[in-house]
């Protein structure tokens, strides 16, 4: 069963439907702020899917969870010419700098994460690169 993790201190939540994912992401997005955007982790189909929340632009990173050291993660590509980084906070506390080139519109990022949850396939709607 898919699992959603958003905090180091709060328990993970099992998701039985894509609709439960939508509701959980809605609640978490309402708590995220532009001053401290967060990253949540979805575990489904043997992969970890990271999704940024709290900004108009976001990202998705997909990686096999069984062997993360030997399988490169895939990261969305927005505008490859964009420079700089944005600080997000993994599980609300661990700062990760995400290159701006990897940011896409937040609604698109949410849709991609949901599609992966539903199908287990990397969506072809956006470009990807190894992380």
Walk me through the structure:
The chain has helices spanning 18-31, 106-119, and strands at residues 3-5, 13-14, 38-44, 47-53, 57-58, 60-64, 74-77, 85-90, 94-99, 104-105, 127-130. Helix 1 runs antiparallel to helix 2 (106-119). The protein is globular. The mean pLDDT is 94. By secondary structure, it is α+β, with helices and mostly antiparallel strands. The two termini are 26 Å apart. The relative contact order is 0.20. It has one domain (3-130). A hairpin with a 7-residue loop joins strand 1 and strand 2. The strands form 2 sheets. Strands 1, 2, 3, 4, 6, 7, 8, 9 and 11 form a 9-stranded mixed beta sheet that branches. It has a two-stranded antiparallel ribbon with strand order 5-10.
Sum up the structure in keywords:
globular, 37% strand, two-stranded antiparallel ribbon, single chain, 131 residues
What's this entry about, in short?
This protein is of the alpha+beta class and 131 residues long.
The pLDDT mean sits at 94
Helical percentage: 10-25%
Could you tell me how far the N terminus lies from the C terminus, measured between alpha carbons in angstroms?
Answer: 26 Å
Low-confidence parts: none
Percent of residues in β-strands: 35-45%
Shape category: globular
Number of strands: 11
Q: What is the count of DSSP helices, taking H or I runs of 4+ residues?
A: 2
Q: Cα-atom Rg, whole angstroms?
A: 14 Å
The main sheet comes to: 9 strands, mixed
């Amino acid at each position: 069963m898919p699992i959603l993790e958003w905090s180091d201190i709060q328990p993970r939540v099992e998701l039985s439907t894509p609709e439960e994912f939508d509701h959980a992401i809605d609640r978490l997005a309402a708590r995220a702020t532009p001053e401290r955007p967060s990253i949540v982790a979805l575990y489904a189909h043997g992969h970890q899917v990271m999704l940024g929340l709290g900004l108009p632009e976001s990202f998705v990173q997909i990686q096999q969870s069984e062997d993360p050291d030997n399988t490169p993660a895939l990261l969305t590509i927005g505008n490859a010419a964009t420079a700089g980084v944005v600080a997000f906070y993994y599980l609300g506390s661990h700062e990760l700098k995400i290159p701006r080139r990897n940011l896409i519109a937040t609604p698109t990022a949410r849709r991609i994460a949901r599609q992966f949850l539903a199908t287990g396939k990397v969506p072809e709607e956006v470009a990807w690169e190894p992380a």
